[in-house]
Amino acid sequence: MICFKCHKQFAIPKLVQHLRLKHGVIEDGKEVLTCGQGACARTFHTFRGFRGHLQTHLKTDFPDNKEQSNENDKVSDFPEESLESLQEYNINNDEIVEDQDVYEDDILSVDTLNRQCVNVISKFSANSANSGKVVNDVVETTSAIVGDVVKSASAAVTAAFLKHKLPIESEAYKEIQTHFAMLEKPFENLNSEYKRTKYCESIGLVEPQEIKLGIRYDSRLNKRTKQYEQIAIEDTFVYVPILDSLKQLLSNKDILHFATHDHKSTDGVMRDYCDGSQFEKTPLFHEDENALQIHCFYDDFETVNPIGSKTKIHKIGALYFILKNLPPKYNSNLSNINLIALWYAEDAKKYGFNAILKHIVKDINILSTVGIALPNGIVKKGTITQISADNLGANSLLGFVESFSAHYYCRLCVTSKEEAQNKFKEVSMDMRTRQTYEQHLEEAEAQTTQSHVFGVKQKTVLNDCIYFHVLANFSLDIMHDLLEGIVQYELKLVLEYFIYERQPPLLSQDELNQRVASHCLNRTDNKNKPSFIKLRSARNDVGQKAMQAWCLIRNLPFIIAQDIEEGNVYWELLLRLLDCMDIIFAPQLTAGLIAQLSILTEEHHTHFQKTFPDRRLLPKHHFMVHYPTCLREVGPLIHVWCMRYEAKHHYFGRVAESVRNYKNICKSLAKKHQTALTFHLQSNHPLEYLEVGPGSSLLLSDLDENIGQIVQEQIQVEDLSTELFDANWVKVHGTHYQLSLLVCHDVSELPLFGQIEHIIVHNSTVFFVLVQLDTVYYNSHYHAYAVEFSFPRCHVVKNQKELVDYKPLDLMTTLSKTDSRKYVAPRHVLFK
Questions:
Q1: Is the CATH number 2.30.30.490 carried by domain 690-824?
Q2: 3-class SS of residue 86
């Protein structure tokens, strides 16, 4: 079998040992083991699956080979005919390992042993469910077992020497015993928390720092007097120095590449922050287009049972950051979301955010003026670009009023809450300017009777950043505004009308929930299937999480629309909302689409008022009016939404649950995170991430003649005997593609879709052989495209990177007895 890393040949047990010892491969859930035998591109996360797959290759590719995994595993033991087969297997140019090399590979060096021990500890440390005590127990137990085994082996060698009257004074005996002594205590340099921390520091650990906020008094038991006494306790927060964090990140060669090579669009399409107008207006990016772009996220999260009695005490505030220099597909990985600071939420209320933020602002200004040195010697500057948060968190952090029933609640304009019920065009609103902001701030600080002026509450040190100001923070959060707000509010109003107000009712609530439960969701939505829909409650939602609400509103047309007459004003409200969402949730946009969103938003809000004249628009409806400006300024809002950041909270929640010690929970969480990050960066996992499922190897000539010809043209090979891997499924950056799903491969007047018939993997590149579908028309009542398979069937081959949209789709059908058409409902607008 061939090593996929160095292309040397080994028997299966020897290959696994070689990967562990020579390449430091560990089963950490992130390491990808690639088959590499011929054209086979199958990937695994465990050695067990990897080994079993190689055994299958051994049986099918070398049927005459009698080797068993528990027998002598030198390559020289392969029968001659198997070696000839190996040469025919396209590996005749790979290096054959000689016997001496095989034995040398078995000998552990000190460095290899240390690396193996570090790999074991990093695997356990990275798991959020493992506390420091668990790691200590693993190290202690493993050390004891290894020590006993080595002592036993050493004693056996000594006994054998004496039994056979071999001189124990010989150099051979001394060399063996010296090696045993080295193996006896493998974790000697890593067997305590202190030693592991020192090791992590040697490989770049950024140690969290505790910074004093103030003093509080608490009563503690005096162990000597057995009396409770009042003592002074320091209130602190934990800061991970952002300059050191950036240096650590940029030591990774993949991240360094993107810090020195921009990904700006050249075709006028807005795909990320670097394509927005704010990037163009920032002087730092005129000086260096690749200056570091730091996007921050703030939110609070609970570390204990959210319905328990200790919720407020242990509620934690967190500030994270990502590097927007990386393309969006990489920043969705939780490993690339980095920690800046953790603090007790109650301390932020007591001392104010400025007491925390001033330390961060100081470092950001050093970054903006002096910069940091990269590993390649280049000095790189940077700045905060945007800060994402939910509406309450953003207003709190940025110094605005924290109540959305206030007269002026918007951070971007001074529209009153009454005016917001009628103003649906941004041009008719008074936008905040730095001059009016400073005036309102001055008045607010001079006030003694009220806490804010025109929504401005207090000064924030964030405005001391050289290239950042709160009025330029356009990262409104579409997750909270739409999926947890407007979508559920309007779903509830419309469904209540159809179920409780319309005569006769369209359906009952029980029937609705039965249809939702039994509806055959497309395979790309299975993980987000809606829960039981709650209508008769005082809340403005239907009891769904954000992704469930998105799934529900996109699938609802295939559940009830067949029973609704076209043009129904209540149904039209949801369709107009979906039209807006098609643009808002798009990962790429044009100036024309953004202008269209302004019109669609105005039409939607006007239609809402006409349909529900006794209902008020939410503040989140008002924020929608600002979306076009936000999109122009900072690019697609889906790249700055809170969804992935909130997933980071779950990591810290699991860590807190495993630690179960709340004496200094912020420091415990930060230290665990930084240690795991250090081990992750040390492992050098590539940013490019491909998983390949089961499948079969085939020759290009084995494909149908018509398919083979277009595959040959796409992968650009001339030899029809070229081996390919035909997979059942692949995962590219976490996106799962499988046979019979649909992808959008082109756009003419309407989007063109294709059904995946083959998934071809060649040289780590994924190609889809698609059966083309004809897009017949757009059905606005179902908010979907009607499609049908072309006849005769036509095929097209597309590189995964060439797809119009990376998200796979599925065929949908309605519950109508008269409409048998197939439909496709994209998540957002599609264009090329």
A1: yes
A2: helix
